[in-house]
Each structure stands twice: as C-alpha cells, then as structure tokens.
Amino acid sequence: MRYVFLVLSCLMLLFMAVQFNDPDGLIWMCFYAIPAIWCALAFYKLNVFSYLWVRLSLVGSVAASMAGVVYFWPLTPQFWAKQVWLNEETAREGMGMMIVAIVLMSVWVFANRRLTPS
Q1: Which residue intervals of 18-118 are DSSP H helices?
Q2: What is the rounded distance in angstroms from the CA atom of residue 112 to the CA atom of residue 56?
Q3: Half-sphere exposure of 47 (CA within 13 A, CB side)
Q4: DSSP code of residue 81
Q5: Which terminus of the chain, N or C, has less C-beta within 10 A?
Q6: Segments of the chain scoring below 50 in pLDDT
Q7: Closest Cα partner for 13 from 54, 43, 51, 46?
Q8: How many CB atoms neighbour CB 29 within 10 A?
C-alpha cells in the first residue's frame, strides 16, 4: 500500500503542475500540495503517524478537505459528464476537491490501520 501513496503523491504533484496557467492556480497548488505531502509521509515516514500532533493535523486536513468539498461542490447538473467538466471551471474545481478529500481519507485510514494493534 505504501507504493500506492507514492503514486498518489506524484499524481498530486502533477495536478499542481497543470495549475500553472490557471488564474487561481496558486490556491489550487496549495490544495494539491497538502495531500501530496501526506502521501509522501505515508510512503517515507510511516512512523511519524504515531505522534498525536501528526494524527490531529491529518484529521484537520481531512476535515478541511471535507469543508472544501461542500464549498466547491459543483451545482452544474451532470457535472461528471465529460462535456460539462470540459467547459465548466466550477465542475473541475469541485471534482478536484473531491479527489483531494478521497486521497486524504485514504491516508487517514491507512495510518489508523497501521497504528491499531491487531
């Protein structure tokens, strides 16, 4: 599973790179940097999740991403359809925030499973 987080971290870095020409690209680069960092930690330094302040920071990141999903939720009908998200910036932003939330929740679940004694 650690290698999945390496791939996800690289994917988030690629998402950051494509924000270069976006008018609000710096904000979205920060949004994508957060899960990239957490995934890198899950890959390289899994033992860091044993610290309470790290786990609380991760929970805060997950909570913030969930608030972001609510805030950026696309109101466009059928936002998942290709012809909609190709033309609607709000649909792409909403789906991007959904991806951020899913990645952060997967790190949280993985970290909790690794730290919970079997």
Answers
A1: 25-44, 52-72, 82-85, 89-115
A2: 12
A3: 0
A4: S
A5: C
A6: none
A7: 43
A8: 19
Q: How many CB atoms lie within 10 A of CB 8?
A: 22
Residues 6 or more apart from 15 whose CB is under 8 A from it? 28, 32, 96, 99
Domain boundaries, the chain: 2-115
75, 118 contact by CB (below 8 A): no
Q: What are the backbone dihedrals phi and psi of residue 70, each rounded to the nearest 5 degrees, phi first?
A: -65, -45
Instruction: Specify the amino acid at residue 108.
Output: W
Asked if 53 and 88 touch (Cβ cutoff 8 Å), the reply is no
Rounded percentage of the chain residues whose pLDDT exceeds 70: 95
Q: Looking up tokens 């939720």, which residue turns up? A: 73
Classified as helix, coil or strand, 79 is coil
Contact of 28 with 90, CB cutoff 8 Å: no
What distance in Å separates the CA atoms of residue 51 and residue 37, rounded to the nearest whole number? 16
- Angle 48-19-96 (CA atoms, 0-180°, nearest 5)? 65
Q: What are the tens digits of pLDDT across the range 50-76?
A: 899 999 999 999 999 999 999 988 887
Provide the pLDDT for residue 84. 72
